[in-house]
Amino acid sequence: MKQFVLYLFIVFFVLSCKKKTVEVKVYSESDRWGFESPSHFPSPDYQFVNNEQTRLRFELGRYLFYDTLLSSDQTVSCSSCHAQAHAFADHNVKFSKGVGGVLGHRNAPALSNLAWYPNFMWDGGVNHLEVQPLAPLTNPLEMNETMSNVVSKLNASSFYKEKFKSAYGIDEITDQKFLQALAQFTSMLISSNTKYDQYLTGTTTFTDKETRGLQLFRDNCAHCHKEPLLTDFSFRNSGVETTIVDIGRELITQDPNDKGKFKVPSLRNIDLTYPYMHDGRFFTLTQVVDFYSDGIQQSATVDPTLGDGFHFTSQEKLDLIAFLKTLTDYYLIGNPDFSEPKR
């Protein structure tokens, strides 16, 4: 009997020790980290060429994304205009504040699924994920900084010297590695876990209203907002004004046929990313749907597929908005891996 009790004590002691054992993962340069294309998505445009993804590099990019050090007066970070709670759009304001409180002149777009984007910015002025940060960094209305100054500040930081050494094995921080590190983070802002995605993959069902809204969307909107990314990445004049104030894509191409054209935005998380349009003129989904129903303004370059509007009924508007609300990705906005890191 004593032997049996002793045996039970030994078993209990061993099991207790096992419960207290915690495996600690130490990430190294060679560790693969995270990026997987959702099964119902097309192949991504960004392929991590010469920038193999690791957890350390992702974490470095995350620190950089949230650091005001990148702006000229150290008051503005990438996250200042791209907040996780708003699906990485700004805090529901028409125009964002840059260094010195100066306002920009276009609405800050939401950030998700950037690895699939062939171009960036409302006018498509940037065509590579690793180059994209240069635009806000050097814009006097945003971060108002130079690339050389950013690199100098990073090299003067013992924190970042250590982080870049661990992530990339370099003693001297370069502009290339800085931009690649940011891409490590932004490429991971994948939105693929909405109710809409669950419907596509057969793991949930839609209500009758959402089903009718999806059909309305496919009949009237999907030629521009192509599924499943909900954008075709084209540039179109959506008819918001007859007299063009912001020439949009024409600024890049110098082609008058592109006057007033802007990139078709993804509709993912649209319920969180108001106000809408390149100039933030609409603050509610109802206003947007009303506009596309009966408010199209004609001009020389307005998209011909819009006609004079879609003339939705009152019920159709409600159904369409019900569908648009299924595009909210609560995993994206709640994922702690994407939140501001502690130092």
Describe the protein's architecture and organization.
The chain folds into 2 domains: 55-190, Cytochrome Bc1 Complex, Chain D, domain 2 (Orthogonal Bundle); 195-331, Cytochrome Bc1 Complex, Chain D, domain 2, CATH 1.10.760. Helix 2 packs antiparallel against helix 6 (158-168), helix 2 (55-65) packs across helix 7 and helix 11 crosses helix 12 (314-324). The longest helix has 19 residues, at 2-20. It contains 13 helices and 2 strands, in the order H-H-H-H-H-H-H-H-H-E-H-E-H-H-H. With 343 residues, the protein is an all-alpha fold.
Unreliable stretches: 1-29
What gross morphology would you assign? globular
Q: How many strand units?
A: 2
Oligomeric state as shown: single chain
Number of helices: 13
Give the N-terminus to C-terminus distance in angstroms.
Answer: 56 Å
Strand order of the largest sheet: 1-2
- The tally of domains stands at 2
What's the CATH topology label of the largest domain? Cytochrome Bc1 Complex, Chain D, domain 2
- The assigned structural class equals mainly alpha
What is the CATH-assigned architecture of the largest domain? Orthogonal Bundle
CATH class of the largest domain: Mainly Alpha
**What is the mean predicted local confidence, pLDDT?**
91
**String of helices and strands:** HHHHHHHHHEHEHHH
Query: How is the main sheet built?
Result: 2 strands, antiparallel
